Amino acid sequence: MKRMFSALVSAALGAALAGCAFAQGNPRGTAELDLNGTHISINYGRPSLRGRTVQSMLEKLPANGFWRLGADQSTTFSTSGDLQFGDVTVPKGEYSLWAQKQADGSWKLVFNKQHGQWGTEHDPLKDFAFVPLKEEKEPQSAEMLTIELENENGGELSIHWGDMELSTHFKTKS
């Protein structure tokens, strides 16, 4: 009887720990776009402000600090073809996405060769592409982080949270 009770307790404890290891506290979102035969997708965690402001959330970042662009597991960017962001080429493949706040207050989108890791595990040695982001104030506040891909004279990637919008344009590379 003791052996059976121990086995049941062990099984229940193991299941609970496994559930915690894979649990993510925020819903996931996906943005997708097909552009000139290239499929682009972004999978990300969607944190909520819950009464806070985006400025208070991001002011904790040091100069040149990295923001994981979401919550929980790292944000994954995938493209089936090469993309051109200004003069920066992002080859087809899968990457994690980060935003880096510069010392002057501007932002850069960072493509990192590592993906699938927890969102706080950023390895700067695997960063390979840095793309300037344009920052604008939004008239309506977005409670949950939202990332969008749109066909706007090529592609546009935009990040909305609170009253902040960060965006960049890209095109497929021929």
Summed up:
With 174 residues, this protein is mainly beta. The chain is 15% helix and 49% strand. Strands 1, 2, 3, 4, 5, 6, 7, 8, 9 and 10 form a 10-stranded antiparallel sheet that branches.
Describe the structure.
The chain is 15% helix and 49% strand. It has one domain (26-172). A hairpin with a 2-residue loop joins strand 5 and strand 6 (88-90). The protein has 174 residues and is mainly β. Strands 1, 2, 3, 4, 5, 6, 7, 8, 9 and 10 form a ten-stranded antiparallel β-sheet that branches. The radius of gyration is 19 Å and the shape is globular. The termini are far apart.
Spell out the blueprint of helices and strands:
Elements: H1 2-22, E1 28-35, E2 38-45, H2 54-58, E3 66-67, E4 76-79, E5 83-85, E6 88-90, E7 93-101, E8 107-112, E9 127-151, E10 155-172
Antiparallel strand pairs: 1-2, 2-4, 3-7, 4-7, 5-6, 5-10, 7-8, 8-9, 9-10
Summing up helix and strand content along with how strands pair, one would put the structural category as mainly beta
SSE succession: HEEHEEEEEEEE
What portion of the residues fall into strands of 2 or more residues?
A: over 45%
Shape: globular
Give the radius of gyration: 19 Å
Distance, first to last CA = 70 Å
What is the subunit organization of this protein?
A: single chain
User: What is the count of structural domains?
Assistant: 1
Summed up, the helix count is 2
| Low-pLDDT regions | 4-22
Q: Describe the largest sheet.
A: 10 strands, antiparallel
Give the integer mean of the pLDDT values: 85
| Strands, count | 10
Helical content class:
10-25%
